[in-house]
Amino acid sequence: MSIDQSTAAKVAKLARIKVEDDALPALASEFNTILGFIEQLNEVDVEGVEPMVSVTPMRLKRREDVVTDGNMQDKILSNAPDAREGFFAVPKVVE
């Protein structure tokens, strides 16, 4: 796949990046270089390779999935500028 100057201009416009006309050839070249790297990655055989979460093999920490209310209502409401009857009080925004 090759990117020409008009496609580079379109990508820049979609990304809301202002690119001068004289900079479009360099931008198209950079896009083509990036696409070349991606094509190289597609050539790598990854058949049978397990996905990893880290470079060192380790097991993720797990905890029991228990639904609770947190039991910290007073602690959380202590940070609120205005709290009434156990809830955050906010200004009325709809008449």
TrEMBL record:
Its EC number is 6.3.5.-. InterPro entries: Asp/Glu-ADT_sf_sub_c (IPR036113), GatC (IPR003837). GO terms for molecular function: asparaginyl-tRNA synthase (glutamine-hydrolyzing) activity; ATP binding; glutaminyl-tRNA synthase (glutamine-hydrolyzing) activity; transferase activity. It is an enzyme of class 6 (ligase). It comes from the Bacteria. The keyword Protein biosynthesis applies. One of its GO terms (biological process) is regulation of translational fidelity. SUPFAM superfamilies: Glu-tRNAGln amidotransferase C subunit. Gene3D superfamilies: Glu-tRNAGln amidotransferase C subunit, N-terminal domain. Allows the formation of correctly charged Asn-tRNA(Asn) or Gln-tRNA(Gln) through the transamidation of misacylated Asp-tRNA(Asn) or Glu-tRNA(Gln) in organisms which lack either or both of asparaginyl-tRNA or glutaminyl-tRNA synthetases. The reaction takes place in the presence of glutamine and ATP through an activated phospho-Asp-tRNA(Asn) or phospho-Glu-tRNA(Gln). HAMAP family: GatC (MF_00122). Belongs to the GatC family. Heterotrimer of A, B and C subunits. This is Aspartyl/glutamyl-tRNA(Asn/Gln) amidotransferase subunit C. The lineage of its organism: Bacteria, Pseudomonadati, Pseudomonadota, Alphaproteobacteria, Rhodobacterales.
